[in-house]
Each structure stands twice: as C-alpha cells, then as structure tokens.
Design goal:
Elements (H helix, E strand, L loop, with lengths): L1 H19 L37 E5 L3 E3 L2 E10 L2 E9 L5 H21 L11 H18 L2
Antiparallel strand pairs: 1-3, 2-3, 3-4
C-alpha cells in the first residue's frame, strides 16, 4: 500500500505543477477598432455613408457607445437596399487580457447572429453577457439611425 500512496502523491504533485505553470496565449492589443484608432463617437451619434460603400448604394451607421462594466461597446452597420450587409465592432472591452480574450471570442458570434436576425434581437454569448448586451444596444441604435 505505501507504494500506491507514494505514486498517487507524486502524480498529484506533478499535475498540480503542470496546472500552475499553464499559460494562456496572449490576446491582441486591440480586438476590433474598425479602423478608427480606438476612439469612440459621442453616444447616440450616427454617421450615414461613412465611406464603407464603394458604389454609393451602401451606407454605414454608427451605433451609440454603450458603457459596460468591462468597457465600452460600439458597432457600425452597413446597409444596402434596406438590408444589413455587415456589422463591424468599432469598440469592444479590451482593458485587460481576459476582457480582450472574451471579446475576440464573442465578436464573430454576435456578428453572425446580427446578420442572420437582421435585427438587434440576438442571442447573447455565454460568458460574455455584458459585451452581448452592449453589442445589442449599440446595434439597435445603429439600426434606428438607418431607419430599419
């Protein structure tokens, strides 16, 4: 019996050492700044035709900046012929590594939801509740500015 106990103790110590030395990959410095250098617009401001469309039939509308517990959230929608053709996150929480990691994981899911729904009625991302709520609010204000 003492040999089993020693083996179990050794394996437990090894597992604990490996767990304590585990490092997650570095998150990017900015998650998605939409080319605006990380600056945000005044809350509630929208900009029609901000240069996203090459033919002039597509217009872009900025949603309001929504301050969440973990940082600001702002999206921009591109609209053509009364349909949302793209959603770009201009600002997402990224003040620390964990927030940036969560934002980078949640953003493509939220974008996909918004494009599918063609509205701000989207499912939130588990583990990114504040970001999801801020995304939906900013999205709704951009859709309102677009008249959708």
């Amino acid at each position: 019996m003492p040999k089993r106990g020693a083996a179990a103790l050794t394996l437990t110590g090894l597992a604990l050492a490996l767990l304590l030395n585990f490092r997650t990959p570095s998150a990017p410095a900015t998650v998605a700044d939409g080319g605006n250098g990380g600056t945000s617009n005044d809350s509630g401001r929208s900009t029609a035709g901000s240069g996203s469309g090459s033919t002039g039939s597509s217009n872009a509308y900025d949603g309001s900046v929504v301050d969440t517990r973990y940082g600001p959230v702002q999206v921009e929608v591109s609209v053509a012929n009364g349909k949302v053709t793209d959603v770009t996150a201009l600002e997402l929480p990224n003040q620390d590594r964990r927030s940036a990691n969560i934002s980078s994981r949640a953003e493509p899911l939220l974008r996909s939801e918004a494009l599918s729904a063609q509205s701000a009625t989207i499912d939130g991302v588990s583990g990114a509740t504040y970001t999801s709520d801020g995304y939906a609010q900013s999205l709704q204000s951009a859709l309102d500015a677009a008249g959708l």
